[in-house]
Amino acid sequence: MNEFFEFFSFADANVRYVTLGSVLLAGSSAVVGCFTLLRKRALVGDAVAHAVLPGVCLAFILSGTKNPFILLLGAFITGWISLLTIDFITSRSRIKEDTAIGLVLSVFFGIGIILLTAIQHSGNAAQSGLDKFLFGKAASLVGEDLIAFSLVAVLLLVATLLFYKELTLLCFDQAYAKTIGYPVRALELLLTTLTVFAVVVGIQAVGVVLMAAMLITPAAAARFWTDRLSLMLVLAALIGAFSGVAGAFVSYTAPAMPTGPWIVLIVSMIATLSFAFAPGKGWVSRLLRQRRNKTLILEENLLKLLYQLGEQKQGTLAPHTFQEILERRAIPQKLARTGLRKLGNQGYIEKTPEGWLLTGQGQRRGERVVRLHRLWELYLTQYLHLASDHVHEDAETIEHIITPELEQKLMEELGFPVLDPHSARIP
Amino acid sequence: MNAFWIILTGSLVATCCSLLGCYLILRRMAMVGDAISHAVLPGIVIAFLFTGSRESVPMLIGAGLLGVLTTFLIEFFHRYARVQADAAIGVTFTWLFAIGIILISVFAGQVDLDQDCVLYGEIAYVPLDLWITGGGLSLGPRTVWTLAVVTLLIILFIVLGYKELFLTTFDPAYAAAIGISTTVWYYSLMTAVSFTTVASFESVGAILVVALLVAPPATAYLLTDNFKQMLLLSVLAGILASAAGYYLAVWIDGSIAGAIATVTGMEFMLAFLFSPARGILIKRKQLQPVQH
To answer: How far apart are CA A123 and CA B183, in angstroms?
Structure first.
């Protein structure tokens, strides 16, 4: 606990640098990542991250210094070339995008490695530290890195805000953007440039391989919580920033721990939890929804059966035995029993010594399902001219879905009919 | 002699990777190969912790399991949680790689592995680790033997499962209809990719594995429409790159793995520009408009 307060008082300058740096990096790359994710190009960030290496090495060989701005310029140039190469290969040959990404990623990185090792073997004493581009060094961020980080983070955020509308359109409806006269090509280049910026700066903190996570993972997690882009950007930035702080905290309490991998581990856990438990889109909530739908369909089918059995016997309100119900429709016994019990608890049916009996409420609900079924059959035969023996299956499905408004429309459209195509009465 | 062993190692890795890569790029799964090659790291570390050495068999098992787990996680995220495909790949492999690095840091004293080794290996050390029998007979580098066995297994896998792999790659619906399990062959293929990655990681590193998985098959893909020819051409391109890469590395005194990757890139560029059927600099007569 003590460490917790020590850390969050930010009294230590080093803690301040590392935390602020991680937050800026993780937050700003998450924002850019949202756009690349939505354009279904999440993995290009990985390619750029690998392609940065030859640029750094070339810049070092040509300039002979380790001036961070010159190295960043080199990184920027090859990162940019790598994205253009991917586009060029996919548009001018039958090579698919994933292959092009893998190709560019490994070949650029191979060139980078051969340059890096050549520099190391050359015995140039100034070269030490170049390999921080490979594996990052978030834990040893110093003041000047922080200035570069903040500059780029601000630049990325401002650019996103300025071009918010254009970028949104580019992600969601490129064709429309083109028709109303947006410079789509220029916007693509802008997004490419932003991605390369985010990668070039972030790579120094988390390294080549994990940089992809900084772009992809917060965005993928945020996507599960909302459908609104503005909210998604904010959420992704927050998730990124939180993991930045958490990663810095872990490596503060356990100095042997690398900051970058911990940031990635934490953000991945947030993402996995989002995939599983986010309301609406998450895996669990989808399973629940499926189960709810299954139960609903079972219950409505049982009510419909009871109603139809009543119709057959004229006296609608006679009880029916379990056997009669199963004879009319083969429902697995166990399922049918649970369904009936549940309906009983909800007050739609009652159990009498002779069998199951619809209550008034159950009568109305069963009647509605039967009505929808027959209305839909009639609609299909009258408007789509399907044969009357082809319409039952479809009606079986849709009877559970039609809303009261739609029901009203159907009734009006069909002129409040009395008989369905099989000459059964529409209740 | 060293040059021979290094080129032989490179060629063996190239053979395995190029063969499997042909299937990966046709299934549009090149990046899954990339993901597996990174994600086996925690498997290697855990195997190392259990055995305390770089024994090949436990590592192959550990990493093979991780490879299948990666494939499974990607599938799970994509199919059940409905994460879009590229994001599922990106999230999975970075996550596992991060766990691997953290494991290395936690057990730094016990694990003799480092990140550079995983990423770009050191093929130049291959001839140093010789397999010497009890009688003092030197049988050549240990890695070569491991790789030779893996290569044989991969070739056997492809020869025996040729029809199934071919069908599940090109027409999964038809394959399923005539009773071939697409899932089984999918996971077998991915297991083969994981084994290859692990067998080669020590000598050539993850990046060269990715380069050899993607670049030679992509080169061959631009040169032919016949799948068997594509397999052969990509193996040829891979072996050629190993030899040329070795001499390039010697010439500029750099990493051999990096040089081999560079050469595979050049091969692709040549095919891209000058392929007789599809090179963008070759005039394609069949595409000229008909003159009336």
So the answer is: 52
